[in-house]
Amino acid sequence: MRQEILTGVERRRRWSDAEKRSILAEVGVDGARVLDVARRHDLTRQHIYQWRAEFRRRGESLTEETGFLPVEMTEKTVMPAVPPSPVEIELMNGRRLRGIEGLSASGLAQLIRVLEGA
Questions:
Q1: Which pLDDT band, with edges at 50, 70 and 90, does 38 fall under?
Q2: How many CA atoms lie within 13 A of 6 on its CB side?
Q3: Could you tell me which residues come within 8 angstroms of residue 88 by beta carbon, excluding any fewer than 6 positions away?
């Protein structure tokens, strides 16, 4: 285990945002838990949770870089029409609804409420 001796007036370690992101990125890699990463860097688990919350509060990404993937535009291809598969919903009371493709979301919700109450 690594030992670090802090001397002088300032006894706290300072972590840059890049270092914090690097440490946070280790959580979950090869099954590493927060506790494992904290021990590896001689931190408490609370440091890691606080750093996560700090980045979220500032609206910043936990990854160091934002990357973009190249996109290539091609001509629109027409997909063959696939017949709609039958929709079937089984309610908690055992009733089943079939053939409800054209019903709006609010209409479907209302129908389910009525049938559940019946």
A1: very high
A2: 6
A3: 96, 97, 98
Contacts with 90 (C-beta within 8 Å, 6 or more apart), sequence order: 96
Confidence at residue 39, expressed as pLDDT on a 0 to 100 scale = 92
pTM, full prediction: 0.45
| C-alpha–C-alpha distance, residues 4 and 24, integer Å | 21
CA distances from residue 38 to 16, 43, 45, 48 in whole angstroms, order as listed: 16, 5, 6, 7
CA pair distance 104, 40, nearest whole angstrom: 54
Best CA proximity match to 43, nearest among 8, 19, 18: 19
Distance (Å) of CA 94 to CA 83, 85, 116: 27, 21, 9
Which is nearest to 21 in space by CA: 63, 56, 59?
63
Distance CA 35, CA 89 (A): 44
- Three-state secondary structure call for residue 39: helix
